[in-house]
TrEMBL record:
This is non-specific serine/threonine protein kinase. The gene is LOC105115378. It is found in: Membrane. ATP binds at K123. Residues 94-354 form the Protein kinase domain. Transmembrane segments: none annotated. It catalyses: L-threonyl-[protein] + ATP = O-phospho-L-threonyl-[protein] + ADP + H(+); L-seryl-[protein] + ATP = O-phospho-L-seryl-[protein] + ADP + H(+). Residues 397-432 form the EF-hand domain. GO terms for molecular function: ATP binding; calcium ion binding; protein serine/threonine kinase activity.
Length: 492
């Protein structure tokens, strides 16, 4: 005890040299009582709990940050995030002038080249409206197609493509000669012959043949997509719109439905089409040019498609008895329902009626043809105007709401609503829940119309907003169609 006590005492009165060591030496701790142990454990648990809460809060904050970043990324249209690789000096080289027309994604203007004063056409496409990657690919493909075909006498010439932060600009040859049917209807003394029609059809076939040579299908051959270069009598006809055109590999087929209602080929409706569909469309145009009426007609588009699939064109009604045998033979060989038995574009160019120096008659066609054609043009433009007017009433918020509804129905997220998806949506426990029998009735009623409207067919079925607009437009179209059957338009 004395030694121990002495040691402690000596240690406590040691010199300054040992002060640091003594300072670092821990004092012996007293054993904790049970109460103290419990308090310590509780304190540790509280600290651990606070740590977990902080960790959870941090994780939640991180998740929110990532979601916000993702939403922010989604909110920016794909077009705005894309560098197309085009020239960036459009404003330095061109001055935009008057508006020529507009479509879903952009506007076409007259523009002037600041360097030489030449007038050109400029298609200005809004990057903000390229919401999905498919829209970006559509623009790139259209530019590539124009590059491939430029130099052909019957294709609008491509000059260059530009871009800035807001737009893509496609600079092309300016065509000021007007639309095909307008040019025909403006003929002096109503002198319109088979030969006039043959000259036009030959130029269209040349475009189709050139497309097919490049592994390309136009997919939307119709009079509105052709313009004359100038107002001169001998002005060439130019194909100006390749928005639906696409490349296809040998032996492959397109399975989507695109085109315009009056001109769509049977195999397109069967989702098994290729280059032959362009020839069918030219056959429909030729039929209209020779008699002023459409070869397949019904008061509804559903009926039109049934006509295309099942029936043959009428070659007995006036004015066909006065049309040459050669002209009728040509049209019949283009409007063959089996694409394998149909003439190719190259073969059609060799037909006696359409080839240069061929046997197309130069005797004026019956005056009723121009009268029929005039009614056809008026009706087509009335329908286009009505559709555009209706589409213009839908604002961005409504369009966003429609997209949400579309996404909810489009279960497989392939960008199109199938009949099965529509059936499931109508039968679900939703505000529009219906009995199975009524669901079947509705699905059957819209089975063709979901893919038949000219407005929808022009969308490639890949653009949700046009499909949704079609659902609203269907009733207006039905009214226009039924109205046509009760007025002078029934001459068609």
């Amino acid at each position: 005890m004395g030694a121990c006590f002495s040691t402690i005492k000596v240690s406590g009165s040691n010199s300054n040299n040992n002060t640091k060591a003594n300072h670092n030496r821990k004092e012996p701790t007293k054993p904790q009582t049970r109460t103290e142990k419990a308090a310590t454990r509780k304190k540790q648990e509280v600290v651990h709990h606070h740590h977990q809460i902080n960790k959870s809060v941090n994780n939640e904050a991180e998740k929110k940050r990532k979601v916000k970043e993702k939403q922010s990324s989604k909110a920016i249209p794909c077009g705005k995030r894309t560098d197309f690789g085009y020239d960036k000096d459009f404003d330095i080289r061109y001055t935009i002038g008057k508006l020529l027309g507009h479509g879903q994604f952009g506007y076409t203007y007259v523009a002037t080249d600041k360097g030489n004063g030449d007038r050109v056409a400029v298609k200005r496409i809004d990057k903000n409206k390229m919401v999905l990657p498919i829209a970006v690919e559509d623009v790139k493909r259209e530019v590539r197609i124009l590059q491939e075909l430029t130099g052909h006498e019957n294709v609008v010439q491509f000059h260059n493509a530009f871009e800035d932060d807001s737009y893509v600009y496609i600079v092309m040859e300016l065509c000021e000669g007007g639309e095909l049917l307008d040019r025909i209807l403006a003929k002096k003394d109503s002198r319109y012959t088979e030969k006039d029609a043959a000259v036009v059809v030959r130029q269209m076939l040349k475009v189709a043949a050139e497309c097919h040579l490049h592994g390309l299908v136009h997919r939307d051959m119709k009079p509105e997509n052709f313009l004359f270069k100038s107002t001169k009598e001998d002005s060439p006809l130019k194909a100006t719109d390749f928005g639906l055109s696409d490349f296809i590999k040998p032996g492959r087929k397109f399975q989507d439905i695109v085109g315009s209602a009056y001109y769509v080929a049977p195999e397109v409706l069967k989702r098994n089409s290729g280059p032959e569909s362009d020839v069918w469309s030219i056959g429909v145009i030729t039929y209209i040019l020779l008699c002023g009426r459409r070869p397949f007609w019904d008061k509804t588009e559903d009926g039109i498609f049934k006509e295309v699939l099942r029936n043959k064109p009428d070659f007995l009604r006036k004015p066909w008895p006065t049309i040459s045998t050669s002209a009728k033979d040509f049209v019949q060989k283009l409007l063959v329902k089996d694409p394998r038995a149909r003439l190719t574009a190259a073969q059609a160019l060799s037909h006696p009626w359409v080839r240069e120096g061929g046997d197309a008659s130069e005797i004026p066609i019956d005056i009723s043809v121009l009268s029929n054609m005039r009614q056809f043009v008026k009706y087509s433009r009335l329908k286009q105007f009505a559709l555009r007017a209706l589409a213009s009433t839908i604002d961005e918020e409504e369009l966003a709401d429609l997209k949400d509804q579309f996404d909810a129905i489009d279960v497989d997220k392939n960008g199109a609503i199938s009949l099965e998806e529509m059936r499931q949506a109508l039968a679900k426990d939703l505000p529009w829940k219906l009995k199975e029998s009524l669901v079947l009735e509705i699905v059957q009623a819209v089975s063709m119309n979901l893919v038949s409207s000219e407005y929808l067919l022009n969308s490639k079925q890949k653009r949700w907003n046009e499909m949704l607009l079609h659902l609203g437009n269907h009733w207006l179209l039905a009214w226009l169609e039924s109205h046509a059957t009760r007025t002078s338009y029934n001459v068609l």
